[in-house]
Design goal:
alpha/beta, three-stranded mixed sheet, 23% strand
Length: 244
């Protein structure tokens, strides 16, 4: 089964890509990336990992952008996709297990660890945990994203049920570090979510966010105990196969 990593790449994500891709890129067979912002540094890192870069006119429609990636992977002859973002990371050994699951299921849903503030603390309560998502599935069955913002795969419309077509795992996680990014960036992103939902023009990249539109608020966190794909202090890749 040929598995393709699909990813949207925006501005200022070179460091995230350089940190996260080494942890799991070896577990996929190909990498297709959508260029949403013409950020030279981020694209350079993606190319270093043999990404096929596709230019995209970013309009804050997450559904159309992600669906374009799915269509590109299908056209390229892949059997399945892993949809991930630059601020997300996985253990390579876990991707291998999820790929094996697709021999028996159409998709796999996993919980997320959502880190806040830094890479050593996470939020252990809903809606931030367990926060299940289906990020890996077999192609050719009509999966597409729905809703412009906070998009989700249309598995309900397809009749894909938990524990039937979709395996629900609790032992494999996605490690999400989006909430560890700079407060100014988080306010900018949240403001643009709301602006586009209201039909207003988004703030340009790097533009200051008006005080009335600043929505980010820190959450109560606890120390994370356990391994992460990238060590939070040394940035070393943690190889589960070697530990075992």
């Amino acid at each position: 089964m040929k598995l393709c990593l699909i990813m949207m790449i925006g501005a200022g994500e070179a460091d995230l890509l350089q940190s996260h891709l080494p942890a799991y890129i070896h577990a996929v067979d190909g990498f297709i990336a959508l260029n949403n912002n013409n950020d030279a540094a981020s694209l350079e890192v993606a190319r270093a990992y043999n990404a096929q870069i596709i230019d995209h006119n970013w309009d804050w429609r997450f559904d159309t952008a992600q669906n374009r990636l799915i269509e590109l992977a299908e056209s390229a002859g892949y059997d399945a996709v892993l949809k991930s973002d630059p601020d997300e990371c996985w253990f390579g050994a876990h991707i291998a297990q999820l790929r094996a699951d697709l021999e028996h299921y159409l998709g796999v849903q996993t919980p997320w660890y959502n880190f806040f503030g830094d890479r050593c603390h996470y939020v252990p309560y809903p809606p931030f945990y367990p926060d299940h998502h289906m990020r890996i599935w077999r192609l050719g069955h009509g999966v597409r994203y729905e809703r412009p913002r906070h998009s989700i795969p249309n598995r309900a419309a397809l009749g894909w049920r938990d524990h039937h077509e979709v395996l629900v795992r609790g032992d494999i996680h996605c490690y999400h570090y989006g909430w560890t990014r700079a407060t100014e960036y988080l306010n900018w992103r949240m403001a643009n979510y709301r602006r586009t939902e209201q039909g207003l023009p988004p703030l340009p990249t790097g533009a200051p966010v008006p005080e009335s539109e600043r929505q980010y608020a820190p959450r109560e966190t606890v120390p994370f105990v356990g391994l992460q794909p990238i060590h939070p202090i040394t940035k070393e890749v943690i190889d589960l196969d070697r530990i075992r």
